[in-house]
Amino acid sequence: MNLPNQLTMARIILIPIFMALLLIQFPKGQPIFPYQDFVAAMIFILAAATDGLDGYIARKRGQVTVLGKFMDPLADKLLVSAALIALVDLGHVPAWICWIILAREFAVTGLRAIASADGTVIAASKLGKIKTVSQVVAISLILLHDWPLSLFNLYLGQPLLYVALFFTIISGADYLVKSKKLLKK
């Protein structure tokens, strides 16, 4: 259990803490403590930041492991899925957007599993990385109610969610094309 894998596991452990802080309220819909949603957003951002950090450390130190290759993308999917589902529950994200993003994640995971069983690795693409970053930025802004941009009457969380949806669909199609080519071998 090297440092990159510990960071990945920490990301997974932070998910229920994030969810509890975002969703648990008093019966009349009041937060349990002031700035509860802001603290939840900070935990989401911290957890998301470990994604780039664990990969960087693993590559730099030569600590890339089979466990890390499996757990890192799983941790990302769990974090983004939890946030989107919670935001749907809170009425901040349309359910259909959440469904498309989750469907893409399940499909890509399935394609990777099939390819892996055949001895083929479908590596993360640049489009997939752009998709992840755009999702994290959009979710973060929505969680923060567009703060600090809202101080200047800029509300970019929802528009960026549509950008993330675009990259989700495009990167999913890219994986589908790559997997067809690789699985035909």
TrEMBL record:
Q: Name one GO molecular function term.
A: CDP-diacylglycerol-glycerol-3-phosphate 3-phosphatidyltransferase activity
The record's principal subcellular location, in a coarse class, is membrane
PROSITE patterns, from UniProt? CDP_ALCOHOL_P_TRANSF
Question: Where do transmembrane segments lie in this chain?
Answer: 7-26, 38-57, 78-102, 159-177
- Could you state one GO cellular component term attached to this entry? plasma membrane
Where does this protein act, in terms of pathway?
Phospholipid metabolism; phosphatidylglycerol biosynthesis; phosphatidylglycerol from CDP-diacylglycerol: step 1/2; Lipid metabolism
Protein name stated in the entry? CDP-diacylglycerol--glycerol-3-phosphate 3-phosphatidyltransferase
* Origin species: Desulfitobacterium hafniense (strain Y51)
